[in-house]
Amino acid sequence: MPAEPLIEAEGLAAGYDGTPAISGVTFSLHPGQRLALLGSNGGGKTTLLRAVLGELRVLSGMLRVSAACGTVPQTERSRLDYPVSALDVATMGTLAALPWWRRPGRHEREAAGRALERVGLAPLAGETFGRLSGGQRQRVLIARALVQEAGVLLLDEPFSGLDRPSGERLETLIGELTSEGRGVVIATHDLEQARACDLVLCIAGRQIACGPPEEVLADVGVLEATYGGAIVELPGGGGRAILPPHHHHH
Amino acid sequence: MAAAARSCLRTITITEMLEPLQEPFMQRALAEVVLIGVAGGALGCWVVFYGLSYAAESLAHSLFPGLVLAAIAGVPLLLGATPAVLVAALAIALGARVAGMSREAAVAVVVTTMFGLGVLLALSPRSPPGVEALLFGDPFGVTDADLAAAAALAALVLLSLRLLHGRLLVAGFDRGAARALGVSPALADAALLVLLAAATVVAVQGLGNLLVVAVFVGPAAAARRLADRMLPTMLIATAIAVLAAVGGLYLSYYAGTAGGASVALTIVAVYLLSLPLGQWLAARRSAPPRAEATIA
Lengths: 250, 296
Hints:
The structure holds two protein chains of two kinds.
Chain A: E1 7-16, E2 19-29, E3 34-38, H1 45-52, E4 58-65, E5 69-72, H2 77-80, H3 86-91, H4 106-118, H5 134-147, E6 152-156, H6 164-179, E7 183-188, H7 191-195, E8 199-204, E9 206-211, H8 213-216, H9 220-227, E10 230-233, E11 240-243
Parallel strand pairs in A: 3-7, 3-8, 5-6, 6-7
Antiparallel strand pairs in A: 1-2, 1-4, 8-9, 10-11
Helix pairs in contact in A: 4-5
Chain B: H1 2-18, H2 24-49, H3 53-62, H4 64-73, H5 77-95, H6 103-122, H7 132-136, H8 144-173, H9 175-178, H10 185-211, H11 213-226, H12 230-255, H13 259-285
Helix pairs in contact in B: 2-8, 2-10, 2-11, 2-12, 3-6, 3-10, 4-5, 4-6, 5-6, 5-10, 8-10, 10-13, 11-12, 11-13, 12-13
């Protein structure tokens, strides 16, 4: 494993208006690793992603991000109405390398075009972003991160709302990105997604656990603390399911 | 016979179009509303996409005390409007940073304070007659000096929009990712507010500070329904703003209606016309996007 981590956090607390929404977060992400950020909605997954992006102030602890971060956020309504093409969105990845008064030119648009080709969207480069399917939009945003030469990709619930072929296609793409030495963080509440990662970080306002999936996901106590409910073994080897707290019978 | 009548009608129409242009006050009024349309139409698209319509209206209202002070001092309105609008923009930017205060609340507090101050000044015994021109605009009353200043400000707005285009596009599309992409969303907001202040100062002489928001919001809201890329949206908005402003001016000239109000209402009428047109365009576009060439 290379010595220099892409992201390193120790005892990190971050939040809004000075109030921590997450605390005690300690992990490091190395090149080529895939980290699942596991937690229920409102547990602080997006908060941690925003802290890594530099959007939120670190309230205490340490956070070191030593690579450019590309982000694939959840789709917001306003973004679908925005008058931009897939190529426009991918071109946004070139701005960080340009001085503030320079507009992206032909060179930049060509780089964006190559990134769209890489994610298999070259034929849709001229399509309006909001008219693409959910999976296609995710890949346009990944192309934007590629243009940006991001060493780390942050994906917020990337598989929610995707049909099976789109999900598999995204999965393959993420595999390629990590094999090229990028670090990938996937925020998810899906245990199956987490199982496919190198590391799992469980979060519920504070860090519950962090480690390889076979260790972390085997611990029922960790999962209960993460989801605030009880974990039940599904009959017939169907895996585990989470029972919300108000369904407790013991 | 019919052809002769038609040609006669055409002659009259062209004469009627040209006749007002003989008048210097009308020439200046036309130049003023064209400048307003150019600066307001293009900038208005960003105002609409950034959700700043309310801020735009408030900014205009809050320069009222500056206008009244300029009128009392007998100096060009620009000299009063510029500091007032900058104070308001700064106060809004600072107010929105106060913990627990939304931008909307900050705007409301600042605008009522400033407007109230303006009314106090306007009702003072020293205020000159004709304060309603400040509220409702008077495109026929602009001087050559006013025009020169308005042209300079309009050029500044257009140049800045050109330089900042890529960054404004990023921060408006995806605030969360903006910082990682090398764009500060707070700076993008601040730049837009400053440009809005400059464009408001250009437009307030023609439209008055109660009506000026029409030129920012109306053409952009209409253009947004007619185009699906930023640059075409801005060009259409500019064209709509200029044409509607000139049309409003002619309406005012021939119907004897108030200049600023005629321009504002013409813009609103164009927006209303854009609704069915936009719907028709959307229906035409609603064919599903092309499938990808290769299927994995």
